[in-house]
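Q: Could you predict the 3D structure of Temptin Cys/Cys disulfide domain-containing protein?
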Amino acid sequence: MLYQNNIPNGNSVPDPCNSGGTWAAVGHYDPKVGSALTNKFAKDFAAAGHTWTRELCMKDSDEDTYTNGQELGDPNCNWTPGNQPERAAFGHPGIYNLQLKSIKKFSSSESCVRKLDILISNK
Ligand SMILES: [Ca+2]
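A: Sure. Here are the predicted structure tokens for Temptin Cys/Cys disulfide domain-containing protein:
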């Protein structure tokens, strides 16, 4: 996942479906499969030429009121590739945290990731 290096904390984005875990494929709805459906952050990232621009940093791709920069630990949009971000990432820039609150309960046969896919496809 080379794109991980193009965003701050790209290799340590929290997995909202798995407390303490990380979400490797940040632009996708499946944490590990880069070919899975892309999320809103991925679309904005692509529009920025797969680079971390000030505009992308200031944007709130998943509309959860936190900018992508805030969620990824670059609240002042100063990060450049290869350097240490100002803070640790605390949120996933492509998954609206409130959506997760509404899907906390799922049966053992359903995964959180699948629930996310269903939510998004109904949007
Ligand atoms: Ca956000």
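Q: Anything worth pointing out?
A: The helical segments are 40-47, 54-58, 68-72, 97-102, 112-121.
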